[in-house]
Amino acid sequence: MPKVSDDHLAARRSQILDGARRCFAEYGYDGATVRRLEEAIGLSRGAIFHHFRDKDALFFALAKDDAERMAEVAANQGIVQVMRDMLARPEEFNWLGTRLEIARRVRTDPEFRAGWTQRSAELTAATLARLERRKAAGALRDDVPTDVLLGYLDLVLDGLIARIASGHTNENLSAVLDLVEASVRRKEA
Asked: What are the phi and psi torsion angles at 143 (to 5°)?
């Protein structure tokens, strides 16, 4: 039997995650049936579940992949840039509905919550490290503890995600992000 290359396996995994992201975003976790996943991905259930144990493992891999992508942007450019990217390129963030599913499953599924808590810690750590670096450089307010700034930015991110996922976007959101950014910057004397 011929050996499948690592590149081929990575490409197939990416194909599965991209299709699953669209399917979960459109139908939610419960509505993303195996048949709908097959249609969205363009592969048979055997091909899909050769790479992922089950639908739950597929969803968790998708959530993990998205959290890692956000953590990378947050570490290099800040969490507000993640939000700006959502507004500028919404087609690249069709996982917003998936993010709402993650929130629901965190509340209702203890096993998922345990795994997700570990993954979301990556985004939190990346954001916190960047905030600490920016604060040390004198760019951020020093009258507010860093963990409070982090909580504030997380709250804004969650609100933005809910707003975009519900289809309520407008041109003012960019100006709102300008206000958020200004509110965490150090005031010049």
From this structure: -90, 0
Tell me, yes or no, whether 161 lies in a domain.
Answer: yes
Query: Model's pTM, two decimal places?
Result: 0.74
Identify whether 15 is part of a domain.
Answer: no
74 close to 39: Cβ distance less than 8 angstroms: no
Structural domain of 120: 55-184
Count how many domains the chain has.
Answer: 1
Q: What CATH code is carried by the domain that includes residue 71?
A: 1.10.357.10
pLDDT tens, residue by residue, 101-145: 788 888 988 988 888 887 777 778 888 888 999 999 999 999 999
Each as own residue / partner, the long-range contacts of residues 73-80 (CB below 8 Å, 24 or more positions apart, any chain) are 74/123, 74/126, 74/127, 74/130, 75/126, 75/127, 75/129, 75/130, 76/130, 78/127, 78/130, 78/134, 79/127, 79/130, 79/153, 79/154, 79/157, 80/153, 80/177, 80/180, 80/181
Tokens representing residue 152 in the block = 């504030």
Residue 41 lies in a domain: no
pLDDT tens, position by position, 111-121: 888 888 877 77
CB 180 within 8 A of CB 80: yes
The residues pairing with 28 across neighbouring beta strands, listed in sequence order, are none
Question: Could you tell me if residue 31 is inside a domain?
Answer: no
